[in-house]
Amino acid sequence: xxxxxxxxxxxxxxxxxxxxxxxxxxxxxxxxxxxxxxxxxxxxxxxxxxxxxxxxxxxxxxxxxxxxxxxxxxx
Length: 75
Description:
Blueprint: H1 3-25, H2 40-67
Helix pairs in contact: 1-2
């Protein structure tokens, strides 16, 4: 797998994790945002998902550095 493919794979993982988190945390739309209280389990799951996304993004940086292609980190 070349650097661009590896970068795309990791970016997809990060996006999938963040989309899942967004869905998970928006399940109580009828509740005012300032009054929403999440169970500890949901908070732990959310933290785990964020950690997963951060790891994928860190892998993208490593892939770009290892490839020597500075364009991989440009938007």
